[in-house]
């Protein structure tokens, strides 16, 4: 139920047999004949479940939402190849996201330093303003 009480149809993969307290609007799914990570990737932010969010009311996924959910489950060997591929792609995207965040942080720091230098008179920007106005 995030943000603002809106369900996001978010799935989490938990690789443990520990006991958990399951609250309202949360369910646990166990797999018996499928790769659990494949099911995680299949369900996480799935458009079928997201369609229950009208953008106004607090979203509720009734049991019927799961009963109406139709999908094809490939053979286990294909599920494993799909999971391997998605794991690699997720790692690449995480790495790119980290690099982008680091670059953004660096640019913000440089911007602050540049503004500070201009305000304190350490650099003269008057000529730059005149050039820009002439263009």
Please give a structural write-up.
With 135 residues, the protein is mainly α. The protein contains five helices and no strands. The chain has helices at residues 36-43, 47-50, 63-68, 76-119, 126-134. The longest helix is centred in the C-terminal third of the chain and has 44 residues, at 76-119.
- Please state roughly what percent of the residues sit in beta strands, choosing from under 5%, 5-15%, 15-25%, 25-35%, 35-45% or over 45%: under 5%
Per DSSP, the total helix count is 5
What is the makeup of the main sheet?
A: none
* Beginning-to-end CA distance, first to last residue: 52 Å
The structure class reads mainly alpha
Shape estimate: elongated
The value of Rg in angstroms is: 25 Å
Spans of at least 5 consecutive residues with low confidence: none
Strand elements, count: 0
Helix content: 40-55%
Determine the mean pLDDT.
Answer: 85
Keywords:
135 residues, mainly alpha, 5 helices
Secondary structure elements and pairings:
Layout: H1 36-43, H2 47-50, H3 63-68, H4 76-119, H5 126-134
Give a quick precis of the structure:
The chain is mostly helical and 135 residues long. The chain has helices at 36-43, 47-50, 63-68, 76-119, 126-134.
